[in-house]
Amino acid sequence: MILAMIRVMTLGLLRDRGALILAFVLPPAIFLIFASIFAATTSDRPQLNIAIAQPGTSPVSLRLEDALRGEPSLRVLDPTRSSRADVARLVENGVADAGIVIGPDPEDDQAPAITVLVEPSKLMAGAMLSGQVQSIVARRLPDLVLSRAAAGVEAAVGGFTPEQAARLSAVVEALSREGRNDGMKGGPGLLETVTVGQSQGADATITYYAGAVAILFLLFSALQNAATLIEERKSGILDRIAAGPAGTDVVIIGKFIFLALLGVIQVALIFAIAALAYDVEVAARIGPWLLTTVAAALASSGLALAVVTVCTTRQQAQTVSTFVVLICSAIGGSMVPRFMMPEWLQHLGRFTPNTWAIEAYYGVLWRGEALSDVLPEIVCLLTMAVAGAVFAIAVSRLRLRF
Amino acid sequence: MIGKPAALEVSNLRVCYGDTEVLHDVDVTIDPGEIYGLLGPNGAGKTTLIRTICGRVRPARGRIRIAGRETGAEMFRQIGLVPQEIALYPHLTIRENLQVFGRLAGLSSRETETAIDDVSEAANLRARMSDRVDILSGGWKRRANIAAAILHLPALLILDEPMVGVDLEARNGLQSVIQKLSGLGMGILLVTHDLYQAEILCTKVGLMHDGTISPQGYPRELLEEAFQDKGEILLEFGTSPSAAHQHLLRQLGFTPNGGPLSWSLIGDRSPSDLAADLVRASLAPKEVRYRKPNLETLFMRHSQRIGLRMGEDAA
């Protein structure tokens, strides 16, 4: 008897192509995506977007820049900026994951040779970059390490004898020529990390994750509620409506608007908690926040309806929805910030609403950007919304013919 | 209804799915107040015909006019469709469902409320208007299902198997609702497998098979044309007759009536002559019945002629 039930389940699975794909293709696909994300985040060679400022033109500072640009684990943005402020701006507005300012005289042990600029939500990027830069300097510019250390020692012991100074210069010159290191590490003071961006009551990470969770929940909720379309199709309600003057377009459009309104309310609750419990400044930026929320909710509705219209059964819709929410959230930055992902995943993430919603929320609530600054993100979200709704209408019309 | 255009006028309709022609030169006319019974086995093309009438499938050729209109939203405003399933929102009350479908049919709020009063009366729903659909019995759901399609008083009401899964009492209630709607002047296209129901309700019937409708017409005329004043003798056996006996039955002019246990003979032989023949052939049916041929007889005969197994589908 038990075997009979197993047989029923097996045949059901084998004869449902959708279920087969979900059962056997989905798990490895999800594993691959998550493996790519987490392998990149735990790798010793994370690919960070770096902006460099080079105020000075000393031979050592130029060599340092060359060494940084030659490092395959860094994506150094062009061109090299001339001021620290330029780099800070790029870091603040998210164009660069972190910034490097090379001191005018790196050999001067009274000032840090390199300053790493990092934005509060990307402190991890700063830590990773600092480690990489120290390693690069130690490997490629050991002479810089030695000369800075020697200057410190000289000051401590009250100066070198001419003979010692000559021998030291020879070693520094040799190291400079050969560019090799026999175990010397960058000494203290070589590098400092500075946080840029405006500081305010809220934690940058909380602000980031308020947006990240909001869009995740928007997707989840929209996909769950959009699945009622399948019940309406099964029960003949769509047939009934299609026969009348309204047609099925009103069903899709009605759901699209309802899901978006519901989403706005749900997101408002999330941000209300964020504002009350964590001082995220929503009230002061209510206009751009609302516009971002409406755009994100519309994008989620459009995507949800597009997904649900291609599903045949509610069960199928639930499985596909889980898949869509997981993937969009993973590669869109709701789980792990995108700067920690490999480049190809960062590109892929641009096709998810999560990427644009998170970027817009963070821009509005942390960087204090004006509406015009987040307009590209909002346009992307609205484009997704319209594309999803149009796709859902087209599929819905097509389904009525068969 | 004189002077009013036909509720439905389908002429010379041809529909293709890719290279396959699924409807061939279909002609149907339903006048206001007429109930047209569309009969036929599964796969005959009934659903495609309904979809084409509703504008969901584009015909390759032919014309469809509903209440005198051939195209546009106004034409579709004249259609009310009652799907085979209970096409209502189960978590809403009957009244709430009717409000939704009234608005979707293009009525204003006020028109919808007036229409709800009218259709709740016509469909005998008044007592349970405030009950959620998911707690109603089959008969109530079916009547509410019809009510949701007639709020805008369509010229053409399409009923797709409206009595599936309801008990006898509910069936009688539904039949009286359908007759009441016909009395209001609606042309009704009733898709059914139930020949008995078709005979009771329909003013006109058509048998659909292989994408065509033939025969079709007024039941009485069809029966007269097919049988004149002949009677039908039905033999029912408890066990299947042997091959020899089946051969003998065929020689006497009987044909199987949906299986080897039931045989039918249409003719003008007297029952006493026939009884003598049966005794001579050592045939002992469990039951012998004589009746005037009806739609079932007509369509069974037609189905046998065209090689369909109508009986199985009708069951």
What does this structure look like?
The complex is a heterodimer of chains A (402) and B (315). Chain A has helices at residues 2-14, 17-24, 26-42, 59-69, 84-92, 123-140, 142-157, 162-178, 204-226, 228-234, 237-243, 249-278, 286-310, 314-332, 343-349, 353-365, 371-400, and strands at 48-53, 74-76, 98-102, 114-118, 191-195. Mean pLDDT of chain A is 83; it is low at 182-188. Chain A has 402 residues and is mainly alpha-helical. Chain B has 315 residues and is of the alpha/beta class. Chain B contains 12 helices and 13 strands. Chain B has helices at 46-53, 73-76, 94-104, 109-122, 138-147, 168-183, 195-201, 219-227, 243-251, 271-280, 295-305, 310-314, and strands at residues 8-17, 20-30, 35-39, 61-66, 79-82, 156-160, 187-191, 204-209, 212-217, 231-236, 255-256, 262-267, 287-291. In chain B, α6 (168-183) links the parallel β6 (156-160) and β7. The longest helix of chain B has 16 residues, at 168-183. At the A-B interface, α11 of A face α2 and β5 of B.
Strands across the major sheet of chain B, in which order? Answer: 5-6-7-3-8-9
Protein chain pair with the most extensive contact, residues per chain: A-B, 15 and 28 residues
Shape of chain B: globular
Helical percent range of chain A? 55-70%
What's the oligomerization state?
heterodimer
Instruction: State the low-pLDDT regions of chain A, or none.
Output: 182-188
Q: Whole-Å distance between the termini of chain B?
A: 36 Å
Q: How many helices of chain A in DSSP terms?
A: 17
Strand content of chain B: 15-25%
Rg from Cα of chain B: 22 Å
Q: What's the total number of strands of chain A?
A: 5
Give unreliable regions of chain B as ranges: 309-315
- The whole-number mean of residue pLDDT values of chain A reads 83
The main β sheet of chain A shows up as:
5 strands, mixed
Q: Biggest sheet of chain A, strands in spatial order?
A: 2-1-3-4-5
Helix/strand order of chain B, N-terminal first: EEEHEHEHHHEHEHEEHEHEEHEHH
